[in-house]
């Protein structure tokens, strides 16, 4: 009695096997249904494993303070490291010039290939005395040099000190009296004919353009020290180049020349190649650039307000000819915010694949113009709109901040000016930020959909099989009626 009542609530009642019939059409429909189930299951599984995010724009609620880090790596094939300066300014009045603590410079050639170790990391010493305070009538004591006789003089004397100047330059004119007076004093102390250890010369860069360009002269006056002897064997015949940045009055110049001669024996023309004595270290002397290009890399911290990063030729004691300054450049990196580790960068691309490349928009961009072109010797400006993106994931009912990244759009332009060309990166942080939230899918929802797929396909296939079977029966009845 009880068992019969239990049987009455059976949802899955069975038809006796002798009342069921297998058919070829049913088998085909069953195979199609099975394939459809597998296809829909694969699509549902792929959708379950895919990243699902929601994006919203909110007021920037950054917790990284009021400062923003900017990393950069920029190559200038025609700007010398000797005067390359990184400056920062903003709308609040901040103005920092020639940042050196977090900036490194490397000399490169015109093909952007490094030509040596890091160029002097320290700042250029400040020149307080640009000449003698009392102007006196001077007699030329230095030797005029040109492209025709420069090499012969540089190989003849162990030390050749050359003043590369321009007649229109204010600082060159300030230096001229003390330079000629120093040359006269040195000539009297170390006669070129009898002693022959040192000679002071001068080059007019408005007349000897190619010679000055060969020695990468971009600021006037530039005092170069050319040595031969102690380095000629070790450096395959190359001469030692130094730039003098010391005081420019007669007393200081004479003292500097004395230090150059101090370790050179009087018989320098005979013993120069054997001189291995140590040279004194003078903070006013630094290696001169062996090539005319420079790679500037490093980072600066700026306030989170509109501002500019400017890279230019800068000096408080030199003049620059705008027609000789070319700020063409190639951007390897220019990015905002903290540098991401490879793992975090992969996570960033996984969650926001559509933002790929916007965190370093200028990377790989080239802004190269050559001398003589219409657009040569112009200021190049980049306008950057910076937006912060914050990635948040919700797992195990907890909100976890994955990372923060800054994206920006860039628009560049060439600006003709009468002043010395510069490169400007104008940046403007947005007061809003993009919030990208990862929304994980429920596993129970996935199982429910899988059951719905299986049951739905099975039911639809059964309906189609029933329709097909009933249609065949009706067709057979009609045929039998006609036959009768």
Automatic annotation (TrEMBL):
CDD domains cross-referenced by the UniProt entry: PDI_a_family (cd02961)
SUPFAM superfamilies reported in the protein's UniProt record: Thioredoxin-like
Localisation per UniProt entry: Membrane
Membrane topology qualifier: Single-pass membrane protein
UniProt GO cellular component terms: membrane
Database matches in Gene3D superfamilies: Glutaredoxin
PROSITE patterns attached to this UniProt entry: THIOREDOXIN_2
Transmembrane segments: 21-43, 446-468
InterPro entries: Erv, Erv_C, Erv_N, Thioredoxin-like_sf, Thioredoxin_domain
Domain Thioredoxin, residue spans: 125-262
Keywords for the protein's UniProt record, in alphabetical order: Membrane, Signal, Transmembrane, Transmembrane helix
Family: Belongs to the protein disulfide isomerase family.
Listed name of the protein: Thioredoxin domain-containing protein
Source organism: Urochloa decumbens
Species classification: Eukaryota, Viridiplantae, Streptophyta, Embryophyta, Tracheophyta
